[in-house]
Design brief:
52% of the residues lie in helices and 10% in strands. The protein has seven helices and four strands; from the N terminus they run H-H-H-H-E-E-E-E-H-H-H.
Length: 207
């Protein structure tokens, strides 16, 4: 890549292990329903609002929304929907969320994922729904991951704050005590060194 020579230590085995660790790190960034809600739920909420507006105003000229994002954004979004495959999204990965109508003129949602330009996109289905998921079912299945007001959702309650601040306070206190102990040890050691040097100088024989 970029005409740079790979270092000798970067064997296929090492590269595989590094890639595996990167995948684990990416997956753990958004692991859990609460984290998924705060990290990826906001985008789910935005897309749901866009589709909801379209169903209410079919004459709207807005037919397509496109968002530029990082790999972490895609991983968070897919994790919130519980359809993340556990592999860090490569460059140029694309996720599509489409709103269609069936033969009964009822809206439904399709989600696809493309992480390889040599293959067709992969159809995805959220838990509890099919690949073609009715819009009402989609909203019902995703309502618990919508954060609402994201700023309020990210705030800690007083109980959570105490549960968070107490360990932090204890950790900071321990760190301060360790620093003080190290400084004291250094000062005592420096004093003893000067004292021993003075004794040695005083005991030097006269020639």
């Amino acid at each position: 890549m970029n005409n740079l020579t790979e270092p000798g230590w970067l064997t296929d085995g090492v590269f595989t292990n590094i890639t595996h660790l990167a995948d684990i790190g990416m997956a753990n960034l958004f692991k859990g329903k609460d984290i998924g809600k705060l990290k990826g739920g906001n985008l789910v909420q935005l897309l749901t609002e866009n589709m909801n507006n379209k169903t209410k105003d079919e004459d709207s000229k807005m037919k397509f929304y496109m968002y530029s994002a990082h790999d972490t954004t895609l991983a968070a979004f897919l994790s919130a929907l519980q359809i993340y495959n556990g592999f860090q999204p490569p460059y140029a990965t694309c996720v599509g969320v489409e709103l269609w109508k069936n033969s009964k003129m009822e809206p439904y949602v399709k989600i696809w994922y493309r992480n390889d330009s040599t293959t067709e996109p992969y159809d995805l289905s959220i838990p509890g729904c099919n690949i073609t998921c009715s819009f009402n079912d989609f909203k019902a299945l995703t309502k618990d991951i919508l954060p609402g007001d994201i700023k309020k959702a990210c705030q800690l309650s007083s109980t959570d704050q105490m549960g968070y601040l107490i360990p932090v306070a204890v950790g900071v206190s321990v760190l301060v005590l360790v620093i003080i102990a190290l400084l004291a040890f250094k000062a005592i050691r420096s004093t003893n060194t000067k004292y021993r040097r003075q004794i040695n100088e005083d005991n030097e024989p006269c020639i």
